[in-house]
Design a protein that fits this description.
Elements (H helix, E strand, L loop, with lengths): L3 H11 L24 E6 L11 E4 L5 E4 L5 E4 L4 E8 L6 E7 L5 E6 L23 H10 L4 E5 H5 L6 H5 L5 E4 L3 E4 L7 E5 L2 E2 L20 E7 L13 E7 L7 E11 L6 E4 L34 H10 L7 E4 L3 E14 L2 E28 L2 E30 L2 E24 L4 E27 L4 E26 L6 E3 L7 E22 L2 E25 L11 H4 L9 E5 L6 E18 L4 E18 L11 E20 L2 E12 L3 H4 L4 E3 L4 E3 L8 E12 L6 E12 L2 E5 L6 E5 L2 E15 L3 E15 L20 E11 L3 E10 L2 E4 L8 E3 L4 E11 L2 E8 L6 E5 L2 E6 L4 E8 L2
Parallel strand pairs: 1-7, 11-14
Antiparallel strand pairs: 1-4, 2-3, 2-5, 5-6, 8-13, 9-10, 11-12, 13-14, 15-18, 15-48, 16-17, 18-19, 19-20, 19-47, 20-21, 21-22, 22-23, 23-24, 23-25, 25-26, 26-27, 26-28, 28-29, 29-30, 30-31, 31-34, 32-33, 34-35, 35-38, 36-37, 38-39, 39-40, 40-41, 41-44, 42-43, 43-46, 44-45, 45-48, 46-47
Amino acid sequence: MLRTPHLIAALLVALPAYADEPTADSPPAEAPAPPPITVRGKVVDPRTGEGLPAAYVQVKTGEAQTIATELDGTFQLALPPGTYQLSFTTPEFDEQAKTITVTEGKVVELSISLQPTVVVGKTETIEVHDTIDTRKESATLAVRRSAATVSDAVSAQEIARTPDSNAGDAMKRVVAVTVSDGRYVALRGLEGRYVTTLLNGVLLPSPEPDRNAVPLDLFPTSLLSTMTVYKSYSAELPGQFGGGALSIDTSSFPSKLEVKVGLSTSANTVATGAQGMTNASAHGAADFFGFDDGTRRLPAEVPRNRAVRNMDSAQLEQIGESFTNVWTPEPETVTPNLGMTATVGNTTKLGDKRVGYLGTGMFRRNYGVRSGTNARTALIGGELTSVESLDYQVGTAESTIGGLGNVGVELDRNNDVSLFGLYSHVGEDTSSFANGYSEADSSTIDVSRLSFVMRSLAFGQLTGKHKLSREHGAELKWQANVAQTTRDELDSRDLIYSIDDQTGTRFYKDQPGSGQRFWQALADLAGGGGADFQIRYGNALLKTGALAQVSERSLVGRRFRYKWIGSDPTVRSLEAEEMFSAEHIGPDFVPEEGTLNEDAYKASLGVYGGYTSAEVQLDDKMRGTAGLRFEHASQHMTNGSPFAIAGLMTDVARSDNDLLPAANLVYAATPDMNVRFAYSYTLGRPRFRELAPFLYFDYIRRRAISGNPELRTTHIHNADLRWEWFPTENEVFAASVFGKQFFDPIEQVLANSESDATFANARSGNLIGAELEARKAIGDYIRVGANLSLLRSRVALGDDQMLQTTKNRALYGQAPYVVNVSVGYINPKIVEASLLYNVTGPRITDVGIEGLPDTYEMPFHRVDLALVRSLAKDLRLKLSASNLLNQRVRLEQGALAVNTYSPGVSFALGLDWTP
């Protein structure tokens, strides 16, 4: 068997290292160790006490050099012993010069206050064309150090050192963050419904009908600048805040021309080269790019104005023969994955205006095979027993297309506007097959499914920033946005055969869910805008703002199945394509619509809010922020389908008015050390999915999941205490404790002894936790990092929830611990290597009732490796491996495993060309 770590090591040794002036016959020289930092300081505005970003620090004696301060005004220099004259400049402030003496083994600490320029007569304008790269790790730490709230972030630079391909993968590196199914985030152990996702400051809806979280695989890492997790609340944020808020910031235009092209491929030990399954050959070439060519659309013969019931036989036969007669997954050898990216951006002059632009496009095609075992349980004689055990295989082909465009214009030195657009499309073609014994059927069964799902997000935003008074710090920001998320499930086909254990003969099961075809379209159109105004008054920064965001959602689904009306039982033993051929449609099978009222709903959510806050510099070391937010939310939902044969009709109309206070206190014990305290009162509204009675069927777990229109809004008290120390621009040590008190928390619970699920409010709950984080440089090239989260939650049940089995348990989806460890060797002359480890403790995925135990997802130990090496000045190679321990995903209910599978070990190879 090929041992990949040895292969990678051998390949790296064989590859040529890039050097500035290589020679043909000289051995590669060791890269010189970077000189130690000997000067460290901060440039501040004396009127506000805040750091001045992008101020120039120029060394005018010795070997001249110029650097720019970070976002919080800090800077570092590596100067040998001697005496130096430094110059500090930035527009609208007087230049200041300072002479310093650097001695061996000591660090010179500086605090520079630049005085605002007093202009008499003609004003001279100085333009600064350099900007700070917010994609750098040091920039994200600088923002974190100066922020008013408790937050953590991961930068584009950090993501580039990992095997991560999308935002979901990258989020696993953040303290107290867990990710399920590779795309859904939980913060501090609280699952997706308690996570608010913001894209460039705008609240995003989820495109999933069966989940309440935004799937982060919609965001390829090539489109990202930073991802920030706000763990304490401030009044500027939406009131929907539980575990925290995830803010996704996309790349903005660079200050100089940047062109980058990337090509990558990857393979997986479980999938690549294995015998997978597909149904793509029956459809068009557009499948390769994640789009349907129209062959899966509802046939034109199906009436749009009435249900397919009570029709004459000729009409039914015509409709039955119009469906594509493909039911059986085809075997296919899985090929390696493919990825491509391209980026171009610049800032230039257009007339007397500065214009910046950025364009990014990407395409990714991934293949997967999942083989596992799934079980259903029941209590028989007081013992937990498996009543169905199926071995299953799922084959997937997923294509992602993404594009980002950003154009900004600096109208003058005080006003600029920008227009941003993002489009992401994911198409997933899935074929699945399962076989095993079912107690309910008293026989062995075969279950197969073909499905094709397209998900997309289109987002546009127009923003403006206007400096009304530089002297008083008066500034107005505004934004208007529109977002459309869609999910189309096209012609999902489900088939069940029972197998005679004596003869091995298969017979088509004529029952709901077998011989079924399903179409569903979800569309969510959201739009709104907001404005924020701030002004400095004395030592206080006053802010106020307002926001309105409206979302309209519709879900439409139709179900059909072939009903057996024949008399010859041998027809039911035929293969599906022969059984449902034109010869047997009419005499043996007729189509029948089984659409339910729960298969369609319309819903709307309007959130209108306003806030005011004040950030006050209380003394040289302490600053505090206090704010109050008011939100009015109006939520409406009604369901029902004109094609329904049965089902529940529900009409929900609810509104909430909430006052949400927030306070954050920051004590700067030293320029590089903070102690933070925060308190807030926030909420968690029921999402559309949790309210809607739509009946979703989980075909892997073989159970139904439905919403609950009676859900109440969750309210939450939050408190945080954190100590953090930033000894250098890339190092941090932090320790945090926090607590949350929930009223009416919403959980996913089992609805019956058949393991079907729904949502319900518990009476109350609490969560306490501690977080430890460290990032440290060891020597010149080694960097280590680790973070640990310890969490404990308990839920109190109401009188209407006494059917739940466990009376003293953790909150749904909450893990007791999360651990991340990273070790990096960063030497651009040789290699940049990162070894990463992640594990999440056991967490409840289903709350048990009527004696059935809770279901837990067990710990998954993940080890990843990434290696980056420059081959030439403009060419970079990246090798990575994920899940090196080849761990299995395992869900347990009591002592029984109800779902297990192996995701396998993945290897990736990528080339980036930057001409």
